[in-house]
From TrEMBL:
Gene3D superfamilies attached to this UniProt entry: 3.50.30.30, Transferrin receptor-like, dimerisation domain, Zn peptidases
Subunit structure: Homodimer; disulfide-linked.
Protein name: Transferrin receptor protein 1
Originating species: Oncorhynchus mykiss
Domain PA, residue spans: 266-316
Keyword line: Cell membrane, Endocytosis, Glycoprotein, Lipoprotein, Membrane, Palmitate, Receptor, Transmembrane, Transmembrane helix
Amino acid sequence: MYCDSIFPNTLLTISLQRDQILTALLPSSISVSTQFNGEPRSYTRFNLTQNMEGENSQVEMKLSSDMDEEVGGNGVGEDHNHAKEPYVVHRPAGRTPKSVCFMVATVLLIFIISYLIGYLSHRKKELAPPSCSRSTFEESITQGSVKMEADPVMDWNDVKRLLDEKMSASSFESAFSEFASESHQAGSAGDTVLAKKVLGRFKDYGMYTWTDEHYVKLVDPPASGSNMVTFKGSDLGTLRGYLAYSKTGTAKGAVLYGNYGQMDDLRKLQDKNIALDGRVLLVRSGKISFAEKVANAAKLNASAVLIYPADDRRIGGSTQLFGHVHLGSGDPYTPGFPSFNHTQFPPVQSSGLPSILAQTITVDMATTITREMEGKSAPTGWGGVGKLGDNDDMVTVEVNNVLAEKLIVNVFGVIKGFVDPDRFVVMGAQRDAWGPGFASSTVGTSVLVELARTISDMVKNDGFKPRRSIVFASWSAGEYGSVGATEWLEGYLSSLNMKAFSYINLDGVVTGFPTFKASASPLMNTLIQRTLEHFSPPYLYDCVVHVFLCYLCFNSMEPLRLNDPVYPFITFSGIPSVSFRFTTEGEEYPYLGTLDDTREKLYGATSNQVAKLAVSAGQFAGRIALRLVHDHLLHLDVEKYTRQIRTHVFAINSKIKKVQSMHPQLLPKSLSVQWLMSATGSYSRAASSLATEIDNSNLEDAELCRNINDRIMSVERDFLSPYVSPRESPFRHILVGSGSHTLKALSDHLDALQIDHSDANADLFRIQFALATWTIQGCANSLAGEVWSTDNMI
């Protein structure tokens, strides 16, 4: 007897000589046919079924009819020609030692077969997926699960169909009711209640879940009394609204109207020979963030800023306004690092904190001031204000806000990928709000949870197997400047910029009807446009679908802004990201940042289409995310940055020539843009080469696909300048970030050099110019792949 293996598909061949053994010991499932009178015995086979792959496992029993098989084909003392003759069975008179040996061997065989059957039936239970449990971020994502032996297969059209079928307006109406809250300010009891609800829903869907806690410094209104604004000695009234992170104290100065507070607006005031030194600037909301308005005023030495709601047609005259004025994101008292253990860090604060006072006032209060202002006439189109203000129009601003340390909690759930579980897309929404926050937080949280339910159901019940993971995140302290999200980015920066390949923001996705707007990293523009081209929202009225689709394809993209929730993801962490929203053309939803952001107001602004628009928002975000985890290669277009770089380089080249012509002592002729152009060309060639490589790649080569995806993921990260401090300049992206290291700052610096401005510094410009060049070249080298593939001519 010999045995090749004890595993499935093993052939066990046994030669037996005794009919008594066959009759007494072999199981009934083995049929044995013997013939006497010199006829050969026959053999049969039987199968063991149900192996670990669901296929048939075969164990073959062979009863030999050939003596040569019994003794290895060469019997001792016999003629070899006998092997061709039939073997005749002779019955011995009794048992011999040899027959006992064969009997023991057969019993052993039966035992092995029984064990094998039990092993195979139990094996499938061992391979069942583990139950979901709470784990940390690193355990849930970076350690991953076992890769599949075969790629997950589901047609993309089937994926879209399942997504669309599982999302309904009725489910969103239920979600709105569940997550609506009158009071859920960051760090409050109401915020904690909502966090537990989101966590519970993630657990109900069978997701891996975990939480992320931070002690951060937030700002509350005065513990007793309130902030105060007086005009010509008269108190303007009670102020409930406030601006977090404003400087505290008292400032007094003549009021000066500044429209939206943009630098262009303030330059118009300077053109009228009006100085801002010591003035209290009165501006209306909109166009740019509150923080940028205050920063612009501080640059021109204003003493304080008052901000009132711009849309006085729809918003009430007594509506209070809330916001923050930190020119950055995250906890401004732990800039560049996370607020995990705040006691270990020395006292420090963000460079983005304002140096002047800032306070919001109501429309009625602003009207009281503008009605009595004197001075020069305001430019046309400045909100109907007649006069800009005179030196006698005195205003006193008193800010007594309280800085408070609070615990905030981010909540996470993950659907793990089946091929590359350590690579993931993040979908997130803020959970907190100043008041009811129905548009700012409730709708986004509902879309987040409904997407988690839908995709989990697709995986569990419909056989969808994403290649990569999907992380769902519920952030706290979003109203204070994406504090919760930024602290998470700071805490896991080294892991995230190598593993998170995209972020999809769900804040404020429904604020109007029927226009669609999006802001994103250029890497995602192609994916967004292709998604929109094949996206026909099923719940919108037929009469507006045509108008809607026109805006989708031709008027959807808008530039990134500092107060966009995706801004820190792109410019601080180097993660390609997208924000989007349904809105009303030419109008912004006026109730964000007020206590009037209620369900009733949003339903009125959308003709009662909130739930249907939420379905469309969920389908759009879901298609973006699922496309990124479904296909072999990431749909991020690295060639989109080529045009943007060239635009900046062209402008810089033109301005350098002008400065060299006007002020040769500042920039000598030896300074050339050749190296910047060379770096631009290197990036362009690397991007084109990668596109060609993708077109010719074998998608079944898992290692090749992972290598290509790694190079794609590196682009956004490599555009973060390595030469500036995350504390001083956190938004390090040289193309869409902010600070002196950006290409836009280089262009602005050249403008200052042209007019020989006092702030211009030719040596500083040359340093920034060289570092920007090397940043672009470094990105090109990384994109090219291996070090021997680089195109470095510098």
